[in-house]
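Input/output pair, single chain:
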Amino acid sequence: MKHVTSSRTLRKSRLEEAYFKINRKEALLYGKIRRTAGFLTIGIPSVRRKNVTYLEDTLQSLISRTPPSNRSRVLLVVFLTESNHTWVVHRAKEVYQRFQEHVDSGFIQIVHPPHIAYPNFRSLERRYNDDKDRVAWRSKQNLDFSYLMTYSLPMSQYYLQLEDDVMATENYIHKLEDFIKQNEQETWLYLRMSKLGFIGLLFRNSDLPKVSEFLLVLFDEKPCDLLINDLRVIKGQTKDFVLSPSLFQHMGLVSSLKNKVQLLKDNTFRD
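Output:
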């Protein structure tokens, strides 16, 4: 048992070292790193799905609903989370060619770590009666979120977590800023811009190191929505602060989890 524990600890320490030492210039496939921090970074991990993609629609929704006057304050970071390098290169080029104007302007960055560090997900312990595929899926998701947060750390004052299959409402930036002001006297780790799990969670960038580290160290223990609730309590936030109507709606049907159809919708979303 001692040997198993020490081996697991060693694997985790190597994983943590790889994630905490991020070379942003090497990770950036397309785009440019801004010299000054903005107001909001939106992190969008993008996964490979069978026979379908939603990323272009998600980006188009965010672009069309971010007024040109606000684009210097907002940054969209697309993280291609696939470990297949050939697919990543092809997909990055596709996205760049579709949104070249916004990538070249610095509004969109497309990133992928040059030496991605994923453990053997098939060897992880099963919890919550999850099968091995689901354990692997949710553990990888935690690592992807952790990497994206660490990469985005110096970019803006706030960080918003999205997925690659959502749409935004009109004036989402203005409504988000108003909700921050409404809760400026409250103690919070995150504000919810949607009631759907991790979609639309807003963090202060000053809190991102702790959030990223928490997801990284405990990546194989729980799903991300349970982990973030644990950290919320630790950080002294006693309740959820949920904006309604929500700013983002989930629209993808084909889940990134194999053979799963995702029918999840936010019934407070209005567009």
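The two ends are 55 Å apart (CA to CA). The chain has one domain: 2-250.
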